[in-house]
Amino acid sequence: MWRSCFRLGAGGGSFPRRPCLLPAAPLGPGSQAESAPGLSLPRRAYAPPAERKKFYQNVSITQGEDGYEINLDHRKLKTPNAKLFTVPSEALAVAVATEWDSQQDTIKFYTMHLTTLCNTSLDNPSQRNKDQLIQASMKFLDTDTICYRVEEPETLVELQKNEWDPVIDWAEKRYNVKIGSSTNIMGPDIPSKTKETFISHLASYNMWALQGMEFVITQLKSMVLSLGLIDRHLTVEKAVLLSRLEEEYQASQSILESPMIVPIPLLNIFLSRNGAMWNGPTTMNYMNCGLELQLGRFLFTFAQKVPQ
Predict the structure, then answer these.
(1) Strand partners, 61
(2) Are 69 and 89 in contact (CB under 8 A)?
């Protein structure tokens, strides 16, 4: 599928009608998806209309001097701040073009989340530089979700140890740092050397990749889990579950007490001990978060090798 899309994009041809591969955002006044029903995304600086009548027939990709551009018929797509919409890689351009091509009679901006991310990267509405983006991500290390532990109940203490400790161990070995965990409300005392190492690591990426990274970190509230996800040590599903471990644990207790409540992913941890597995529906928050992480990792993956 992607290869055929690449050929179409490279030749500047129109895209055939097909289902949307990834969600995204707008062309018009803004690039925020706040009005999406049931969807929780980080706050954006833009607030576009929820819908707009479709004004184009064909979507294509052309390669310009600064990257890949999206064409709606003979119009070049622009950002909310009227900048030329140009992305650094063909794969990213294909994904954005697919979002626009998938719109029917009405353009539903709240279904176009990847375009939203790209608009934010291009317009940089908060006017942050690279150092500020890195510091925004680093703030989550001091309050990292998986570094805060409870002292009771015993089952949750054990669950956090069994599920979170291996990820921290992996990160400490992977980056040669010390992170640790704590039951203190102030959290663990992260060594300055660890922070310097992570700052140096983040600085190796360009602005596009850092935007995707920050998006992932904001969703997980965890630098450690985000690094695990970006390095593909963790799947999206696993990262979401680990970031919501305590919430899912509390919900699982209700499930065990009342089978009428919709099951959630953590139930599998309990069931697996008896050789069983739940394949039913999961909570909406869990699924939405997974979608957002896919988008953030997608932006990161296809932007990180672009020159600074």
Answers:
(1) 70
(2) no
Buried-exposed string 176-199: b where 16+ CB fall within 10 A, e elsewhere: ebebebeeeeebbebeeebeeebe
Q: Which residue has the higher pLDDT, 203 or 186?
A: 203
- Tell me if the bond preceding 153 is cis, omega within 30° of 0: yes
For residue 135, report the phi and psi dihedrals to the nearest 5 degrees. Answer: -65, -35
SS3 content of the chain, % helix, strand, coil (to 5): 50, 10, 40
pLDDT at 34 over 80: no
In order, the DSSP letters of 221-240 are: T-HHHHHHHHTTSS-HHHHH
Q: How confident is the model at residue 196 (pLDDT cuts 50, 70, 90)?
A: very high
- Take residue 34 and report the two structure tokens written for it: 């706040």
Alpha helices in the chain (DSSP H): 2-10, 90-101, 113-123, 130-142, 154-175, 192-203, 207-220, 223-230, 236-243, 245-257, 267-272, 284-301
* CA gap 96, 89 in Å, rounded: 11
> Residue 51: beta bridge partners?
108
Instruction: Give the residue among 94, 36, 35 at the shortest CA–CA distance from 67.
Output: 94
Predicted confidence (pLDDT) at residue 275 exceeds the cutoff of 80: no
Residue, of 220 and 1, whose pLDDT is higher: 220
d(CA 230, CA 223) in angstroms, rounded, equals 10
Q: How far is CA 143 from the centre of its chain?
A: 19
Half-sphere CA count of 75, side-chain side, radius 13 A: 12
pLDDT in tens, 78-105: 999 999 999 988 888 888 998 999 999 9
Residue 303 confidence class, pLDDT cut points 50, 70, 90: low
What is the spatial distance between Cα 2 and Cα 177, in angstroms, rounded to a whole number? 38
Confidence check: pLDDT of 294 > 90: no
- CA dihedral sign, ordered 289, 163, 252, 184: negative
